[in-house]
Design brief:
By secondary structure, the chain is an alpha+beta fold. The protein has 2 domains: about 110 residues, no CATH class; about 70 residues. Helices cover about 40% and strands about 15% of the residues. The protein contains 6 helices and 7 strands; from the N terminus they run αββββββααβααα. It has a 4-stranded antiparallel sheet with strand order 1-4-5-6, with helices on one face. A hairpin with a 5-residue loop joins strand 5 and strand 6. Helix 4 packs across helix 5. The longest helix is centred in the middle third of the chain and has 42 residues. It is rod-shaped. The N and C termini lie far apart (about 135 Å). The chain binds zinc ion (2 copies).
Length: about 250
């Protein structure tokens, strides 16, 4: 029996074999309709264990009168409910590269393996969510990697330079130091220690001089005080004719 199960299907020579993962249905005439022929589709079920999926249906035209059904729990029975002609047609339709449309009616009436259930939208959504999360994590790690790259590159550069003559190593070191300085400058600008005011466009804002402000508001400029605080630039000590010694001889 087992060897027969392993025989590959060959409808051309009269050996039909169908493995149905989903339920397999046969069709029978509906006795309620006598004027018009209508069919009722019924699933094939194992009479012993009531399994109705993963059934194997075999019909060897030379020896079998009815379709032999094998359930996955090794129960086998001959099923007279399945019309052998229907089964032969179905089997040939599975194999024909160019199926006869006149024979397709049995499938239209529901004969054969049930069509795949409609895709569960919720399940699709869940999968999409998981996949999306995966990509997000991947992108994040990529960004993290990019952030560490300059440092790693500098390390590599220094290490490589170490293997080279001294001048090359010195040059690399200098370049690295320069980079560090630039980095510190950037950090200082960011933390505001350098009092660089950034405009809305992110560039440092140009602050006008105090004189410009004064002019705009009409404020008088403070008068310049005397250069010499002793003679107040009169070159003589006030109230005398003695020339000022503080701002040099007259
Ligand atoms: Zn069974
Ligand atoms: Zn003076």
């Amino acid at each position: 029996m087992a060897s027969e199960l392993l025989r590959p299907a060959d409808p051309g020579s009269g050996y039909h074999r169908v493995l149905a993962r989903r339920r397999f249905r046969y069709i029978r005439r509906d006795p309620a309709h006598s004027l018009r022929i209508t069919w009722i589709a019924e699933p094939v079920v194992c009479p012993v264990c009531e399994t109705d999926t993963d059934l194997q249906l075999v019909l060897d035209e030379r020896t079998d009168v009815f379709v032999q059904v094998h359930c996955p729990r090794r129960h086998t029975w001959s099923d007279p409910a399945i019309d052998p002609a229907h089964f032969r047609t179905y089997s040939r339709l599975q194999w024909d590269a160019d199926p006869d449309p006149d024979r397709m009616w049995i499938i239209d009436e529901g004969f054969g393996e049930e069509p795949a259930p409609p895709v569960d939208l919720e399940e699709v959504k869940a999968v999409a969510k998981t996949v999306g999360r995966l990509y997000k994590a991947k992108a994040k790690s990529r960004v993290r990697g990019a952030a560490g790259r300059p440092v790693r590159a500098a390390k590599r550069k220094a290490r490589d330079a170490a293997k080279q003559p001294f001048t090359a190593a010195a040059r690399a070191l200098r370049g690295r130091r320069k980079g560090q300085e630039q980095e510190q400058e950037q950090l200082a600008a960011q933390s505001g220690r350098r009092r660089v005011q950034l405009g809305p466009d992110g560039k440092p804002m140009k602050v006008p001089s105090v004189a410009k402000y004064r002019k705009a508001y009409g404020a008088p400029a403070p008068k310049k005080g005397p250069a010499c605080l002793v003679c107040e630039d009169t070159r003589t000590i006030p109230g005398t004719h003695i020339s000022c010694t503080e701002c040099g001889p007259a």
